[in-house]
Amino acid sequence: MKVTILSIALAAFSLGACNNSQTSTAKTDQHPDSSAVTTEGTSVRDITDVYLQLKNALAEDNGNDAAGAAKKMVEAIGKINQSAFTSDQKKLYADIEPDLKENAEHISENSDKLEHQREHFVMLSNDVADLIKGFGTGGQILYKDFCPMANDNKGAIWISEVKEIKNPYMGKSSPTCGSMKEELK
Amino acid sequence: MRLIRKTLLAVLLTFVIIQFIRPARNRSGQASAADFTKVYQVPVDVQSVLQKACYDCHSNNTRYPWYTNIQPMGWMMARHIKKGKEQLNFNEFGSYTGRRRISKLKGIANQIRDGDMPLWSYKIMHKQGRLSDSQKKLVIEWINKTADSLLAD
Asked: Is ipTM over 0.95?
Protein backbone atom coordinates (compact mmCIF):
# COMPACT_ATOMS: atom_id res chain seq x y z
CA MET A 1 0.00 0.00 0.00
CA LYS A 2 2.87 2.34 0.85
CA VAL A 3 4.27 1.78 -2.64
CA THR A 4 0.94 2.67 -4.19
CA ILE A 5 0.64 5.92 -2.30
CA LEU A 6 4.20 6.82 -3.12
CA SER A 7 3.67 6.18 -6.81
CA ILE A 8 0.52 8.28 -6.83
CA ALA A 9 2.29 11.14 -5.15
CA LEU A 10 5.14 10.85 -7.63
CA ALA A 11 2.78 10.74 -10.58
CA ALA A 12 0.83 13.79 -9.44
CA PHE A 13 4.04 15.63 -8.71
CA SER A 14 5.64 14.90 -12.06
CA LEU A 15 2.48 15.92 -13.91
CA GLY A 16 2.53 19.23 -12.11
CA ALA A 17 6.20 19.64 -12.88
CA CYS A 18 5.57 18.99 -16.57
CA ASN A 19 3.13 21.81 -16.60
CA ASN A 20 5.63 24.27 -15.24
CA SER A 21 8.75 23.31 -17.13
CA GLN A 22 7.60 24.99 -20.35
CA THR A 23 7.08 28.39 -18.79
CA SER A 24 10.43 28.39 -17.04
CA THR A 25 12.36 27.65 -20.23
CA ALA A 26 10.41 30.34 -22.03
CA LYS A 27 11.49 32.83 -19.41
CA THR A 28 15.17 31.97 -19.62
CA ASP A 29 14.99 32.35 -23.39
CA GLN A 30 14.14 35.99 -22.96
CA HIS A 31 17.18 36.63 -20.87
CA PRO A 32 20.05 35.16 -22.78
CA ASP A 33 23.27 34.32 -21.05
CA SER A 34 24.90 37.61 -20.13
CA SER A 35 28.35 36.08 -19.76
CA ALA A 36 28.59 35.68 -23.54
CA VAL A 37 29.17 39.39 -24.13
CA THR A 38 30.76 42.34 -22.44
CA THR A 39 28.84 44.52 -20.06
CA GLU A 40 28.64 47.27 -22.64
CA GLY A 41 25.66 45.78 -24.41
CA THR A 42 24.63 46.28 -28.01
CA SER A 43 23.93 49.32 -30.15
CA VAL A 44 21.37 50.14 -32.81
CA ARG A 45 24.14 49.52 -35.36
CA ASP A 46 24.30 45.92 -34.13
CA ILE A 47 20.59 45.58 -34.80
CA THR A 48 20.91 46.94 -38.33
CA ASP A 49 23.90 44.66 -38.95
CA VAL A 50 21.93 41.51 -38.12
CA TYR A 51 19.01 42.93 -40.07
CA LEU A 52 21.23 42.96 -43.17
CA GLN A 53 22.20 39.31 -42.54
CA LEU A 54 18.53 38.46 -42.25
CA LYS A 55 17.72 40.36 -45.44
CA ASN A 56 20.47 38.52 -47.36
CA ALA A 57 19.28 35.15 -46.06
CA LEU A 58 15.76 35.86 -47.29
CA ALA A 59 17.11 37.01 -50.67
CA GLU A 60 18.79 33.60 -50.88
CA ASP A 61 15.56 31.79 -49.92
CA ASN A 62 17.40 30.47 -46.86
CA GLY A 63 14.86 30.20 -44.05
CA ASN A 64 17.34 28.63 -41.65
CA ASP A 65 19.88 31.43 -41.90
CA ALA A 66 17.04 33.94 -41.71
CA ALA A 67 15.83 32.35 -38.48
CA GLY A 68 19.39 32.37 -37.12
CA ALA A 69 19.85 36.06 -37.90
CA ALA A 70 16.44 36.88 -36.43
CA LYS A 71 17.43 35.08 -33.24
CA LYS A 72 20.58 37.17 -33.07
CA MET A 73 18.42 40.24 -33.48
CA VAL A 74 16.23 39.26 -30.54
CA GLU A 75 19.40 38.82 -28.48
CA ALA A 76 20.79 42.17 -29.62
CA ILE A 77 17.52 43.85 -28.66
CA GLY A 78 17.66 42.21 -25.24
CA LYS A 79 21.13 43.64 -24.56
CA ILE A 80 20.68 47.09 -26.01
CA ASN A 81 22.60 49.83 -24.24
CA GLN A 82 20.48 52.97 -24.14
CA SER A 83 22.84 55.15 -22.10
CA ALA A 84 23.91 57.19 -25.15
CA PHE A 85 20.35 57.71 -26.43
CA THR A 86 18.84 61.19 -26.44
CA SER A 87 15.38 61.49 -24.88
CA ASP A 88 13.80 61.57 -28.36
CA GLN A 89 15.73 58.47 -29.32
CA LYS A 90 14.61 56.72 -26.16
CA LYS A 91 11.00 57.50 -27.02
CA LEU A 92 11.41 56.31 -30.58
CA TYR A 93 13.14 53.15 -29.46
CA ALA A 94 10.44 52.40 -26.88
CA ASP A 95 7.84 52.71 -29.63
CA ILE A 96 9.70 50.48 -32.08
CA GLU A 97 11.18 47.82 -29.80
CA PRO A 98 8.12 45.66 -28.94
CA ASP A 99 7.15 45.32 -32.59
CA LEU A 100 10.70 44.76 -33.81
CA LYS A 101 11.25 42.07 -31.21
CA GLU A 102 8.00 40.30 -31.89
CA ASN A 103 8.53 40.21 -35.65
CA ALA A 104 12.09 38.97 -35.15
CA GLU A 105 10.81 36.26 -32.80
CA HIS A 106 8.29 35.06 -35.36
CA ILE A 107 10.96 34.92 -38.07
CA SER A 108 13.28 33.00 -35.77
CA GLU A 109 10.58 30.45 -34.96
CA ASN A 110 9.50 29.74 -38.54
CA SER A 111 12.63 28.56 -40.32
CA ASP A 112 10.52 26.17 -42.43
CA LYS A 113 8.02 28.81 -43.53
CA LEU A 114 9.77 31.30 -45.79
CA GLU A 115 6.57 33.07 -46.79
CA HIS A 116 5.57 33.51 -43.17
CA GLN A 117 9.02 34.92 -42.43
CA ARG A 118 8.63 37.36 -45.30
CA GLU A 119 5.27 38.55 -44.02
CA HIS A 120 6.91 39.52 -40.75
CA PHE A 121 9.87 40.97 -42.62
CA VAL A 122 7.55 43.64 -44.10
CA MET A 123 6.83 45.19 -40.71
CA LEU A 124 10.31 44.50 -39.41
CA SER A 125 11.81 46.44 -42.33
CA ASN A 126 9.54 49.41 -41.58
CA ASP A 127 10.75 49.30 -37.99
CA VAL A 128 14.42 49.15 -38.98
CA ALA A 129 13.95 51.98 -41.51
CA ASP A 130 12.46 54.14 -38.74
CA LEU A 131 15.28 53.19 -36.39
CA ILE A 132 17.83 54.32 -38.97
CA LYS A 133 15.90 57.55 -39.44
CA GLY A 134 16.23 58.28 -35.73
CA PHE A 135 19.70 56.90 -35.08
CA GLY A 136 21.53 57.25 -38.38
CA THR A 137 23.35 54.52 -40.26
CA GLY A 138 26.32 54.34 -37.93
CA GLY A 139 28.72 55.63 -40.59
CA GLN A 140 27.83 53.30 -43.43
CA ILE A 141 25.92 53.98 -46.61
CA LEU A 142 22.61 52.13 -46.83
CA TYR A 143 19.86 52.05 -49.40
CA LYS A 144 16.11 51.97 -49.00
CA ASP A 145 14.62 49.77 -51.70
CA PHE A 146 11.03 49.18 -52.69
CA CYS A 147 9.30 46.24 -54.34
CA PRO A 148 5.74 46.86 -55.57
CA MET A 149 4.99 43.12 -55.85
CA ALA A 150 5.76 42.24 -52.24
CA ASN A 151 3.19 42.17 -49.44
CA ASP A 152 0.30 40.92 -51.61
CA ASN A 153 1.05 43.52 -54.30
CA LYS A 154 0.71 46.32 -51.77
CA GLY A 155 4.43 46.90 -51.93
CA ALA A 156 7.09 46.79 -49.23
CA ILE A 157 10.46 48.36 -48.49
CA TRP A 158 13.71 46.90 -47.28
CA ILE A 159 17.12 48.27 -46.32
CA SER A 160 20.21 47.15 -48.17
CA GLU A 161 23.96 47.68 -47.89
CA VAL A 162 24.49 47.23 -51.64
CA LYS A 163 23.33 49.41 -54.49
CA GLU A 164 22.19 46.57 -56.71
CA ILE A 165 18.73 45.15 -56.05
CA LYS A 166 18.65 41.81 -54.20
CA ASN A 167 15.01 41.30 -53.36
CA PRO A 168 14.39 39.58 -50.00
CA TYR A 169 10.64 39.23 -50.65
CA MET A 170 10.86 37.46 -53.99
CA GLY A 171 14.14 35.67 -53.43
CA LYS A 172 15.56 33.70 -56.33
CA SER A 173 12.28 33.70 -58.24
CA SER A 174 12.59 37.41 -59.01
CA PRO A 175 15.81 38.67 -57.44
CA THR A 176 16.06 42.02 -59.21
CA CYS A 177 12.45 43.14 -58.81
CA GLY A 178 12.23 46.58 -57.21
CA SER A 179 14.09 49.84 -57.19
CA MET A 180 16.23 52.00 -54.95
CA LYS A 181 14.21 54.82 -53.38
CA GLU A 182 16.65 56.55 -51.12
CA GLU A 183 20.29 56.62 -50.16
CA LEU A 184 20.80 56.72 -46.41
CA LYS A 185 23.94 58.13 -44.79
CA MET B 1 -2.46 -10.38 -10.88
CA ARG B 2 -1.74 -8.39 -7.77
CA LEU B 3 0.56 -6.15 -9.72
CA ILE B 4 -2.18 -5.37 -12.26
CA ARG B 5 -4.62 -4.58 -9.49
CA LYS B 6 -2.14 -2.36 -7.79
CA THR B 7 -1.34 -0.49 -10.99
CA LEU B 8 -4.99 0.03 -11.83
CA LEU B 9 -5.66 1.27 -8.34
CA ALA B 10 -2.73 3.66 -8.61
CA VAL B 11 -3.98 5.06 -11.92
CA LEU B 12 -7.48 5.48 -10.55
CA LEU B 13 -6.27 7.17 -7.40
CA THR B 14 -4.01 9.48 -9.39
CA PHE B 15 -6.99 10.44 -11.52
CA VAL B 16 -9.04 11.21 -8.44
CA ILE B 17 -6.27 13.20 -6.81
CA ILE B 18 -5.50 15.36 -9.81
CA GLN B 19 -9.13 16.45 -9.87
CA PHE B 20 -8.33 18.59 -6.84
CA ILE B 21 -5.59 20.48 -8.66
CA ARG B 22 -7.65 23.07 -10.47
CA PRO B 23 -6.13 25.90 -12.47
CA ALA B 24 -7.45 29.42 -11.84
CA ARG B 25 -10.20 30.39 -14.24
CA ASN B 26 -9.73 33.06 -16.87
CA ARG B 27 -12.67 35.27 -16.01
CA SER B 28 -12.07 38.88 -15.14
CA GLY B 29 -15.66 39.91 -15.87
CA GLN B 30 -14.46 43.48 -16.25
CA ALA B 31 -14.65 45.64 -19.31
CA SER B 32 -11.17 46.85 -20.17
CA ALA B 33 -10.50 50.41 -21.31
CA ALA B 34 -7.90 49.00 -23.70
CA ASP B 35 -10.40 46.68 -25.35
CA PHE B 36 -10.25 46.06 -29.10
CA THR B 37 -13.72 47.56 -29.56
CA LYS B 38 -12.62 50.75 -27.82
CA VAL B 39 -9.57 51.13 -30.05
CA TYR B 40 -11.38 50.53 -33.35
CA GLN B 41 -14.90 50.87 -34.71
CA VAL B 42 -15.44 47.15 -35.15
CA PRO B 43 -18.50 46.19 -37.25
CA VAL B 44 -20.96 44.07 -35.29
CA ASP B 45 -20.69 41.03 -37.58
CA VAL B 46 -16.87 41.07 -37.44
CA GLN B 47 -16.86 41.42 -33.67
CA SER B 48 -19.33 38.56 -33.35
CA VAL B 49 -17.01 36.19 -35.25
CA LEU B 50 -13.97 37.28 -33.22
CA GLN B 51 -15.88 36.85 -30.00
CA LYS B 52 -17.11 33.38 -30.83
CA ALA B 53 -13.99 31.97 -32.46
CA CYS B 54 -11.09 33.81 -30.79
CA TYR B 55 -12.00 35.23 -27.41
CA ASP B 56 -11.89 31.97 -25.45
CA CYS B 57 -8.09 32.00 -25.64
CA HIS B 58 -7.37 35.61 -26.64
CA SER B 59 -9.22 37.62 -24.01
CA ASN B 60 -9.61 37.81 -20.24
CA ASN B 61 -12.88 35.93 -20.35
CA THR B 62 -13.20 32.30 -21.36
CA ARG B 63 -16.44 30.38 -21.83
CA TYR B 64 -15.51 27.08 -20.27
CA PRO B 65 -17.02 23.90 -21.72
CA TRP B 66 -18.09 21.25 -19.19
CA TYR B 67 -15.17 18.90 -19.83
CA THR B 68 -12.63 21.44 -18.62
CA ASN B 69 -13.88 20.60 -15.14
CA ILE B 70 -12.13 17.27 -15.59
CA GLN B 71 -8.35 17.17 -15.26
CA PRO B 72 -6.06 17.08 -17.15
CA MET B 73 -8.36 18.73 -19.72
CA GLY B 74 -8.65 21.83 -17.53
CA TRP B 75 -4.84 22.07 -17.35
CA MET B 76 -4.47 21.80 -21.09
CA MET B 77 -7.06 24.51 -21.60
CA ALA B 78 -5.32 26.74 -19.04
CA ARG B 79 -2.04 26.37 -20.89
CA HIS B 80 -3.64 27.20 -24.23
CA ILE B 81 -5.22 30.30 -22.76
CA LYS B 82 -1.98 31.44 -21.15
CA LYS B 83 -0.08 31.06 -24.40
CA GLY B 84 -2.92 32.58 -26.40
CA LYS B 85 -3.10 35.67 -24.24
CA GLU B 86 0.64 36.16 -24.39
CA GLN B 87 0.46 36.33 -28.16
CA LEU B 88 -2.72 38.37 -28.45
CA ASN B 89 -5.23 39.70 -25.97
CA PHE B 90 -8.22 41.49 -27.48
CA ASN B 91 -9.12 42.95 -24.09
CA GLU B 92 -5.71 44.62 -23.88
CA PHE B 93 -5.19 45.57 -27.50
CA GLY B 94 -5.00 49.26 -26.62
CA SER B 95 -1.89 48.66 -24.53
CA TYR B 96 0.14 47.64 -27.59
CA THR B 97 2.25 50.31 -29.30
CA GLY B 98 0.92 51.70 -32.58
CA ARG B 99 3.17 49.66 -34.82
CA ARG B 100 2.62 46.53 -32.79
CA ARG B 101 -1.13 46.90 -33.29
CA ILE B 102 -0.59 46.92 -37.05
CA SER B 103 1.59 43.80 -36.81
CA LYS B 104 -1.02 42.10 -34.67
CA LEU B 105 -3.81 42.93 -37.11
CA LYS B 106 -1.82 41.57 -40.03
CA GLY B 107 -0.93 38.50 -38.00
CA ILE B 108 -4.58 37.83 -37.23
CA ALA B 109 -5.60 38.13 -40.88
CA ASN B 110 -2.73 35.93 -42.08
CA GLN B 111 -3.31 33.23 -39.50
CA ILE B 112 -7.00 33.01 -40.33
CA ARG B 113 -6.21 33.00 -44.06
CA ASP B 114 -3.68 30.17 -43.65
CA GLY B 115 -6.05 28.21 -41.42
CA ASP B 116 -3.49 28.21 -38.57
CA MET B 117 -6.05 29.86 -36.32
CA PRO B 118 -8.30 28.87 -34.68
CA LEU B 119 -6.24 25.84 -33.69
CA TRP B 120 -7.46 22.50 -35.06
CA SER B 121 -7.68 21.11 -31.54
CA TYR B 122 -10.00 23.96 -30.64
CA LYS B 123 -12.08 23.45 -33.77
CA ILE B 124 -12.65 19.78 -32.96
CA MET B 125 -14.28 20.67 -29.69
CA HIS B 126 -15.90 24.00 -30.64
CA LYS B 127 -18.24 24.25 -33.57
CA GLN B 128 -18.14 28.04 -33.35
CA GLY B 129 -14.42 27.98 -34.02
CA ARG B 130 -14.96 26.46 -37.46
CA LEU B 131 -15.25 29.54 -39.64
CA SER B 132 -17.03 29.48 -42.99
CA ASP B 133 -15.31 30.97 -46.02
CA SER B 134 -17.59 33.99 -45.90
CA GLN B 135 -16.87 34.54 -42.22
CA LYS B 136 -13.15 34.35 -42.88
CA LYS B 137 -13.45 36.76 -45.79
CA LEU B 138 -15.48 39.20 -43.71
CA VAL B 139 -12.94 39.30 -40.88
CA ILE B 140 -9.82 39.27 -43.07
CA GLU B 141 -11.03 42.08 -45.32
CA TRP B 142 -11.97 44.33 -42.44
CA ILE B 143 -8.72 43.68 -40.61
CA ASN B 144 -6.57 44.25 -43.68
CA LYS B 145 -8.44 47.44 -44.48
CA THR B 146 -7.91 48.67 -40.93
CA ALA B 147 -4.20 47.75 -40.92
CA ASP B 148 -3.60 49.44 -44.28
CA SER B 149 -5.32 52.65 -43.20
CA LEU B 150 -3.17 52.71 -40.04
CA LEU B 151 -0.02 52.17 -42.12
CA ALA B 152 -0.95 55.10 -44.35
CA ASP B 153 -1.17 57.47 -41.37
From this structure: no
Of A22, A98, A103, the CB nearest to B97: A98
Nearest to B151 by CA among A152, A181, A71, A46: A152
Tens digits of residue pLDDT in A47-70: 999 999 999 999 999 999 999 999
Buried b (16+ CB within 10 A) or exposed e, B31-52: ebeebbbebbebeeebbebbbb
CB B32 within 8 A of CB B60: yes
Distance between CA atoms of residues A67 and A71, nearest Å = 6
Q: Note whether B6 contacts A: Cβ–Cβ < 8 A.
A: yes
User: Within an 8 Å CB–CB cutoff, is residue B10 touching chain A?
Assistant: yes
CA B38/CA B89 separation, integer angstroms: 13
How does pLDDT run across A118-148, given as a tens digit for each residue?
999 999 999 999 999 999 888 899 999 999 9
DSSP 3-state of B35: coil
**A177: buried, middle or exposed (CB in 10 Å: 19+, 13-18, 0-12)?**
middle
Q: Do A4 and B13 touch (CB under 8 A)?
A: yes
Q: What's the length of chain A?
A: 185
3-state secondary structure of A176: coil
Backbone angles phi, psi at B59, to 5 degrees: -155, 180
Dihedral of alpha carbons B36, B41, B44, B45, sign: negative
